[in-house]
Amino acid sequence: MTLSRNHQSQRGVYFTVITPRFSRVVSCLLFGLLAVGTPCFAQDGVVPPSAPQKEPKKRIIDLVRYDPRTQGPLLLVVPRNVSAEYDDADRAAYSEKWSAGVTLSRFGEIMACRTLTDGNLTALVPRTMTTIVSDPPDPDPTAGMQAEERFRLLLGTLTPAQWQIMGGSTGIGTGDLTDEQKPLFAGLFPAEGLTVATMEERANDDQPGQTFWADTGESNTVPVRGVRLRVRRQVLVEFLDPKDGSRNASSTPGEREDRYRFRTPEGEERSVGVTNDWQLLAVPPDDADGTRIAFGQTVVRVEQNRAKPSDLPVDAPAFGIGMRLDGSEKTVGELLSRCAKETRMPLVADKRLAALPLAWRVAPGGQTASVASVLRLLCRSVTGTFRRLDLPNGAQTVYLLTDDREGYGTRLARLYRWGQRAEDARDALLRKAKTNAAKGDPLSHVQFAPDDPMALPPALDASLETAYRTTDAGGIPVPPAELPPALRDAVAKSVRWWKDYGRDVNVGNMRIGATLTCDYVLPDGRAFEAMWGRYSQTDYLRSVAKTKPVATVAPVKPTPAPAPPVPRSTPRRVCVLPLPDGDGLKPLLVLARRKGFTEVLFRVSLYDARTPDRLKRAVALGKSLGIPVGASAPWLKRGAGESMGIEDVNVSGETGRRWIADEMSRMTRQTNEMGAELGVPVTLDKQTDRMFALAGAYLGDWIVPDARIAREPLSAVLSVTDLSAFVLTDTAAPGWDREMTDSNDSLPGALLGCTPATRIACIRSQGFDPVDVYDASLRPPFTVPELHFGPENLTGPMTAFRVGENRRELAALLGPVAGRAVPVYVEEYKPFISGIGAGYIRHREDATSSSETLAVYRPFMEYEPSAITAALAAFARTAPKTGFVADFGRDSVADATRCLNALADK
After folding, report:
1. Which of these, 631, 639, 636, 641, lies nearest to 716 by C-alpha position?
2. CA 300 – CA 309 distance, rounded (Å)
3. 295, 140 Cβ separation under 8 angstroms
4. CA 660/CA 662 separation, integer angstroms
5. pTM over 0.90, yes/no
6. pLDDT class for 742, splitting at 50, 70, 90?
7. Sequence-ordered list of residues with C-beta below 8 angstroms from that of 503, at least 6 positions apart, any chain
8. What is the enclosing helix (H) or strand (E) of 286?
9. Which of 368, 324, 380, 358 is nearest to 72 (CA)?
10. Cβ-based neighbours of 615, under 8 Å, separated by 6 or more
11. Are 527 and 521 in contact (CB under 8 A)?
12. Which helix (H) or strand (E) holds 26?
């Protein structure tokens, strides 16, 4: 149960409203208790015969002193979470009983609305609306930086002399800084000064057995002037994963609450420390009115409700006709359907807007108003407009009542890209700052504090410094017995802490390092660790330790393992290969047979007119060599130079190839910038090149599911005599295959399914436009605003619609060929970044019969043939008895040949 309190200035009464359990809430809105709607739920139940009968609900619009006979009809689109009705019990519970209604203007104040008249029709419309700024000015990468990021920028400006001052006992102050450095320095302090408070240890209710230090209220404020910053080393303890050497846990023994502990005369333990610098870690909250600011620019604003540009020509004569209003339309959807019927125009409302209820005041018998007036006031009532969608051939047109002519998801996707550019620029600034900081040799100036009980002994400290300067190691292995007592105790405490959280760490896998920590040094000499100065700087000292590149020794290449053979554990061992031209066909078939495969499927294009003849030649040659030949072809993929079907697009209207090209360009640019800053040429290894190529091939050239375009080409391929089998692959593009969630295993922005035809079909069957759905894998640099759409999550229904469309088209394609002699398989779709791949499912005419499944191995991250063949051999040993497939069909003929040659002969 939630409590909200509001001041009522007119009566000087302080009310308490309980939400959302009781229906009385909404009547409070009408009596001036709330300026914004509150959820209301009716409480209908069976009333005992002896109980007094409950008063029937009354319409909220009847509270208004308004005469429609003289003032014209009145319309209110009841806002989301506001009840359109009330009863006397509601009124009695929250306010004095009124003997008269309220004026229209007063009612509008209560509902946060204003009156708007169009012709003879009056509506109560919201005073404000939320607008997404779809094309904000260039972002400022430094705006909104957190304290730890500003700290790193400051460190990047220090000279060696300033590093020496900052690493000294008293630290560095404004008098030691240049004018350019002072703003960065000032941003590392709370504006009101440092709050130095007495704290006490309390139990943590959320984590039984744990405690935290809480402010007791005894504090004083230290002005920023005269406070200095000091950097020092602090021990870092890390526990390595024995399996792969990764840092699966790390812990910095803390002293924030230990340095100034004391006991009161009553014997209670207390501590003193700075308690308000945590705010420098927090993300600035959104403005109370809903405004969002990112990288110094307003990206979402709340402004006065105004008419938005519209794709519907409501001023045309067709909309000037009159329609009779009698209050029978109860929702926005019903009223818009009536307008569509009157004008014979394809008008549709987004289903979330269509569900909003209407409240009317009309004269007995009804009154007439123009359709144009109704439509204009509907738009203003939902702060929306009409968007036009057309099929390319003009066969279908829809006018959708929605938030904006451009999609909600489309605008957020653009802001995601806008914020991504700003984040890239910010990362570049921070990388440059770290490169510049290294020139000052911080490791020579940042030392352990003389009174630090956990400081490393000189010999260990020197070993650590040598490791940082000459290797990339994050620390050095140290037996616990060589550590000072305080550090040994801290390590033991850290081990217990991790074990309490289910992480089994071992001191035998421990590594000791040093992290950079920053202190506030007060004018009286006391020093308190800055909250923002520890947690983000774990690897800072190591990363800035090398003042010049360290010579590296080329690793000794291990002796390659013997080439594995194709396991004979299954009778059917299939290899998918690209179909070569010319004389390359026979050598490839001979090679596949020699390596132990019993069948070859050549990957071809359905939409290439040469495919049937090329397959006939391959089948005949395979027959003469004693190895069956079949085919594998993508359904929803275009080949080079092909133009079949309609290419699919994402929420921004980009094809998959265009999107991945932009992403690759961005990643390449970042890599080159990093190399330039380090003074080292950066080249992508072959494995990364392979990954980029596969990503481009996977995400590019998808077409919209349409059985008609593939039906004849498929029949032509299946008519090839003696074809051993046929596999239909690429049957579902990203976005057509699974539920879209935060844990989505696709790449952000790569989801397709937003062509005009798909959008119109979704509107007709589901009631919303896919471009108005927010892709959760895209994360703009601000809190996503709620519009009149409400909180309903439509990602599930949208994906269910796409999956249904996909399956319907697939059934229409495969239905006519189910009885063919050639066995037909369908690829069980798996997303690109999932790794090994999927299986081939035998398509049967009888849906109740069991389906034969062939497990598939498809190389993904592996590039070296030895790694690919080793993975294939391991995979084949676990394959089902029905057989397995090694799919090299997406590779070039040369790469597929390299991999086959790496296998041992049978």
Report:
1. 631
2. 18
3. yes
4. 5
5. no
6. very low
7. 248, 249
8. none
9. 368
10. 579, 602, 604, 629, 631, 717, 720, 723
11. yes
12. helix 24-30
Q: How many other β-carbons are positioned within 10 Å of the β-carbon of residue 460?
A: 17
Contact between residue 742 and residue 778 where contact means Cβ atoms under 8 Å apart: no
Dihedral (Cα; 204, 207, 212, 216), 10-degree rounding: -20
Q: Could you count the other beta carbons within 10 Å of the beta carbon of residue 689?
A: 12
| Cα atoms in the Cβ-side hemisphere of radius 13 Å centred on 767 | 13
Q: Tens digit of pLDDT for each residue in 230-286?
A: 999 988 888 877 666 666 556 555 544 455 777 778 778 788 888 888 777 766 666
Q: Please give the Cα distance from 826 to 808 (Å, whole number).
A: 14
For residue 877, what are its two tokens? 């040993």
In what helix (H) or strand (E) does residue 782 lie, and over which residues does it extend?
A: none
Q: Which residue has the tokens 């397959």?
A: 615
CA angle, corner 671, sides to 668 and 677, nearest 5? Answer: 140
Partners of 594 in the β-ladder: none
d(Cα 101, Cα 418) in Å, to the nearest integer?
A: 51
Peptide bond into 780 cis (omega under 30): no
- Type and span of the H or E element at 217: strand 211-222
Q: Are 571 and 852 in contact (CB under 8 A)?
A: no
**How do residues 552-592 score in pLDDT, each as one tens digit?**
555 566 676 788 888 888 889 999 999 998 889 999 999 99
How many other β-carbons are positioned within 10 Å of the β-carbon of residue 24? 20
pLDDT confidence of residue 283: 67
Amino acid at 372: A
Q: Which two tokens stand for residue 103?
A: 């004026």
DSSP reduced 3-state for 371: helix
* Strand partners of residue 236: 513
**Bridge partners (DSSP) listed for residue 124:** 76, 115
Rounded-to-integer distance, Cα 256 and Cα 531, Å: 9
- Please answer whether residues 32 and 45 qualify as being in contact, where contact means their C-beta atoms are separated by less than 8 angstroms: no
| Spatial separation of the C-alpha atoms in residues 388 and 313, rounded to whole Å | 11
Closest CA to 694 of 667, 660, 662: 660
Residues contacting 444, CB < 8 A, separation 6+: 163
Q: Is 548 exposed, middle or buried (0-12, 13-18, 19+ CB in 10 A)?
A: exposed
Give the C-alpha separation, 645 to 672, whole Å.
38
Length of the chain, in residues: 906
Classify strands 884-887 and 853-857 as parallel, antiparallel or unpaired: parallel
Residue 81, classified by CB atoms within 10 Å of its CB into exposed (0-12), middle (13-18) or buried (19+), is middle
Tell me what percent of the residues of the chain surpass a pLDDT of 70: 83
Q: Provide long-range contacts, Cβ within 8 A and 24+ apart, for 477-480.
A: 477/510, 477/511, 477/512, 478/510, 478/511, 478/512, 480/507, 480/510
Render pLDDT for 744-764 as a digit per residue (tens, 0 to 9): 455 667 889 999 999 999 999
Contact 300, 294 (CB under 8 A): no
SS3 assignment, position 701: coil
Distance between CA atoms of 74 and 327, rounded to whole angstroms? 10
**Contact predicate 356/382, CB 8 Å:** yes
Cis peptide before 20 (omega within 30 of 0): yes
Torsion of CA 62, 63, 66, 72, to 10 degrees: -40
CA gyration radius for the chain? 35
Amino acid identity of residue 388, one-letter, is: R
pLDDT at 45: 40
Taking only the tens place, the pLDDT of each residue in 82-97 is 777 877 666 554 444 3
Cite the DSSP H helix spans in 366-407: 371-381
Average pLDDT, stretch 519-528? 91
DSSP 8-class letter at 890: T
Is residue 388 within 8 Å of residue 398, measured between CB atoms? yes
Do residues 157 and 436 touch, judged by C-beta distance below 8 A?
yes
d(CA 696, CA 693): 5
